[in-house]
What does this fold into?
Amino acid sequence: MSKFAVAGATGRLGQHVVDVLTERGHHVVPMSRATGVDIITGEGLAEALTGVEVIIDVASWHGSEQEAATEFFRTSARNLHETGRQAGVARIAAASIIGADKATAGFIAAKKVHEELLLAGPLPVRLLRAAQFHEFVGQLLEWQQSDVVHLPALPTQLVACRTVAEELVDLAVDPSDPGTPIPEIAGPRKEIMADAARILGARRGIEVIGVDGSGMPDADIAAAGGFLPSPHAKLAGPTFPEWLDAQS
It folds into this structure.
């Protein structure tokens, strides 16, 4: 079995990637500040990549500010490429966001830059664009810290982190180049973000009010379906209600 290093291993998606790799019998090197590896400063990175064949990059910036997120992704892409090349890594597989190529502002625009920097090399890179996670809905409720939450009534196609992790590992294991278009993974059905949040909010005693989302970055693109999966996307369950039921 191959040896994989997972950047962002303790994050929301990273934990699932580590689990999937481990369940499939691969040797996993979890990389995060919690494990003594900092992909921004480079601390512990060379040691962690010793003997690694593939890097799976699911590390992410913790906020939504475009400039800070862009700088994080710029530095992480450079360090993973440079240190990975020196360590003899064969390739990088990384998670991105559906619609990143259309984004002009905010966090998703930072991911657009991230994609461009990763694809610029020198290591071969496999990208997987994913829809917003089921787990993101709860995060939206928590950010506002109120009994009444206002969320955008914009279309989405929520997908479970575990589902994304399985697809990303499949992509990382296969050395063949999927070419274009870039693979996408999304949930089984189109939903409205505010409606999904209303389901979760009802369980938490939180009232969710849908708003037009005009204050959000690229809200016009989102409203027009620009962040929904393309016709070539793989659609996979569970649905958001099914996923919620499985958590309880």
In short: The chain has a mean pLDDT of 95. Residues 91 and 124 are 5 Å apart (CA to CA). The longest helix spans residues 66-87. The radius of gyration is 18 Å.
